[in-house]
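Dear support,

I submitted the protein below through the web form. The confirmation email said the job was done, but the results page showed an empty box. After a refresh the structure appeared. I'm attaching both so you can tell me whether what I see now is the final result or a partial one.
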Amino acid sequence: VKQCTKAGGCSVEQGAVTLDANWRWVHVADGWENCYTDGVWNERFCPDSQTCAKGCAVEGVDAEGYEKNYGIRTVSGGIELQFVTAGGNVGSRVYLTDGEEAYKVFKLKNREFTFDVDVASLACGLNGA
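What the results page shows now:
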């Protein structure tokens, strides 16, 4: 992320991204059965929120998994998100963090927020607007 001012130019702020938990696999902590499938919690593992929190886990994702499973990879100065991966996953959603434990907060009053999107190679049927 670059923070820019008219007077001072631009400076780079380090951060990180995290994958939206809705895209990650939620399974039994000591096994591989789904706790959550197609928008429904498995009653066997999640009869209530406390039991579910103790018995289920959100699968971790490493850099290889970000690219292979979710089509997210680092590029010079940022990240690139593919819409469809070779494995068939469609779409992804990431959040910018401060690199530690919190989401990045942008204070936008009297400021602008810009980002670049390369639409030159969008697949047929995708809207670049």
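Response: this is the final, complete result; the empty box was a page-load delay. The longest helix spans residues 63-70.
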